[in-house]
Amino acid sequence: MSLLGFDHVFADAVECTVASGVMASVVLLPVLVLLKVVAFLDMPHQRETDLWDIAAVMAFYESEGERRFTEEVIASGVDYDSAGAYLLGMDLARLCTAPDERSAVEQFLEQISDEDSATHNLFVRRGRPRFDEADRTVQRQITAIVSGFQKGRRDEP
Fold first, then answer.
1. pLDDT on residue 125
2. Is a pLDDT exceeding 50 seen at residue 132?
3. DSSP letter string, 74-132
4. CA dist., res. 139 & res. 133, Å (int)
């Protein structure tokens, strides 16, 4: 079991009120996605449910608030349904400062982008918002997360 990315769990956690007077440290979604990417890459046949989780985060990421409507997102050309994936890609790129973290995310993105790979087919099947939804929505989200990750990498200092 790889512990790659685990240092972010505590270093990047935020304090949230979970009940009246009760605070808890909560992991940020990009950190959770990084951990799920690493877990899937370690044991792909045993961690297929991580694909559903990652696809769900891609679909709903930053759907609350105004971030999907920023100039940066509009300039990227992604549609609203793919904007969360684009932003997640950017945030993952900013999070993954260590070369081995970047490499793991790049490997995962390559696998889900390769239309001939088993990982891609599983991801598309798991990533459909509804069973009657066309695969094109998931394909656009895959393209958007890759684009966001590349953009985030270019924006690095």
1. 80
2. no
3. HHHT--HHHHHHHHHHHHHHHH--SHHHHHHHHHHHHHHH-TTSHHHHHHHHHH-SSTT
4. 12
Q: Where are the chain's structural domains?
A: 28-154
Closest CA relative to residue 113, chosen from 80, 87, 89: 89
Tell me if residue 19 falls in helix, strand or coil.
strand
Q: Which helix (H) or strand (E) segment is 26 a member of?
A: strand 22-26
- Using the Cα atoms of residue 45, residue 50, residue 56 and residue 59 in order, give the sign of their dihedral: negative
Question: 33 and 12 in contact (C-beta within 8 Å)?
Answer: no
Amino acid of residue 150:
Q
Instruction: Tell me how far apart the alpha carbons of residues 104 and 100 are, in angstroms, rounded to a whole number.
Output: 6
The tokens describing 18, both together, are 């979970």
What CA–CA distance (Å, rounded) separates 40 from 11?
Answer: 22
Which tens digits make up the pLDDT trace of 91-128? 999 999 999 999 999 999 999 999 999 999 888 887 66
Q: Is 48 helix (H, G, I), strand (E, B) or coil?
A: coil
pTM assigned to the model: 0.89
pLDDT tens for 15-42 read: 999 899 999 999 999 999 999 999 999 9
Work out the number of other CB atoms within 10 angstroms of the CB of residue 77.
Answer: 10
